[in-house]
Design goal:
6-stranded parallel beta sheet, TIM Barrel, 635 residues, 2 domains, alpha/beta, 5-stranded parallel beta sheet, 45% helix, 24 helices
Length: 635
Amino acid sequence: MVRHQLVVQEFKEAKSIGVDTVPVLVGPVSYLLLSKPAKGVKKSFSLLSLIDKILPIYKEVVAELKAAGANWIQFDEPTLVMDLDSQRLHEFTHAYSELESSLFGLNILVETYFADLPSETYKTVTALKGVTAIGFDLVRGSKTLDLIRGGFPLEKYLFAGVIDGRNIWANNLAASLNTLQALEGIVGKDKLVVSTSCSLLHTAVDMVNENKLDKELKSWLAFAAQKLLEVNALAKAVSGQKDEAFFSANEAAQASRKSSPRVTNKAVQKAASALKGSDHRRAMNVRNRLEAQQKKLTLPILPTTTIGSFPQTLELRKLRREYKANKMSEEEYVNAIKEEISKIVKLQEELDIDVLVHGEPERNDMVEYFGEQLSGFAFTLNGWVQSYGSRCVKPPIIYGDVSRPKAMTVFWSTLAQSLTKRPMKGMLTGPVTILNWSFVRNDQPRLETSYQIALAIKDEVEDLERAGISIIQIDEAALREGLPLRKSEQAFYLNWAVHSFRITNCRVQDTTQIHTHMCYSNFNDIIHSIMDMDADVVTIENSRSDEKLLSVFHEGMKYGAGIGPGVYDIHSPRIPSTHEISDRINKMLGVLESRILWVNPDCGLKTRKYSEVKPALTNMVAAAKLIRAQLAISE
């Protein structure tokens, strides 16, 4: 109730200063389909059974917006691009039929995005009652054009999303104009609206202050402000008022990007192309590898470790800022980071953690740090986008073929290893996560770019191994994040994504232990793909899931790899007790064999304070030792 009142309030506020906006609401069916049942509710409960209970609230907010002077209201129904059965499709028909009388006198836009619509869904959405207009993503949903060609209701507006709302590349205006002119022939000029493919929330805001990007590269880009100019230019062109100078500049930029030598590296392309002839698996199976690794590492049962990062203090961030601003010498910076790593290693030894990390004090972001050292990447000063909640990130821009000019992490990892006799993990970000958390070039398939990044990470893995690092963690936090919405497209993605990971470590010795980490996600439907990654140890979020993931990873016993389900939630300042962590470990042992179980937090400790980290890790290690003692007694 509070949220819908806020929508009305925001509309009124904009109108009071002379701005006539289109209020945007999550559509009623998508609202339910994207919701989760409350804790304790039976799995068999259908959220869609609540549709008739929430429709009166939608009628109320529509009435308030209408009374406030709204002419258009947008209902986002993103779930329309998913695989929906006839029952779920019927709920869309039912919901908008029930709302029809409330919508009378208003223009209603139902917006879809991120994929093509299935043909049956297209028939349903184009027949919705009370709906004035339908929006389609014609960038990621290019096949939808064929459905539109097969017929579109003449009485409705078509919002053609030809400007990419999820990436930062300048639109090919000539190609988009051809598409729009074809659509104009189907729906008529008066019913065609030029639009972005989705909300511009996913792009950076404006290029006006990007002073460090060179002129050529900037000409290839369009942030949100520039995309609005593209929408306007295309709309005018469709109406016969084409801005020839604007179109010419765009054509020149497109040609520049296509022919620029900075984009293409023939050697990289050849190496990436050659990868398709093999599946790049390690020769020995994982059970035998773990035995060989244990002989070398001699770890205790239930080995303890952390995921990688340690707290990024204000002093540490200030240090990196001053170094980037040339306010200190490289020698001063390196010495300061060495001192920080030394403190982190000493702390872990005092806590008696079994497998250590160097804490990553030299890193700003797990993707940006690597992108800064790889060719084919560019970086913005102010290209922030919302990640989740209030957290924002500044994604790198992958504009060309990717390669690794020199080692990226070997210096810091070997320095850390020299400070201890315990195993030190080399910490890397995996190719698929770098891909999914960057603005990726759109002039070649994503898998080609992923393979190029994989080759660069492979070079780093092999250099770490040669430098004496016996455990290497290659994080694939965003593996599932790139999973297509349509089931028919998921197997293809998972095949090349998993292959990319295997490429990174296929040549290491059997005694080198490869870890990977995956963040908060639902792994049930991709467990076999995770197993196919062939990592020696997989660490995952678990504490927020109340051990629900353990039943899924029970299948990991058949696979034989080590598994580290997080024993406490690092996104909370709350410090778990030894008893609480022990209880979690015992629950894990009810599903997983002790020989494959690792004890670790849910994720990296970057966002936490040392006052939270020290006692939490103290309790974690104490819990692992307690359970080890209990297991020894029971044997």
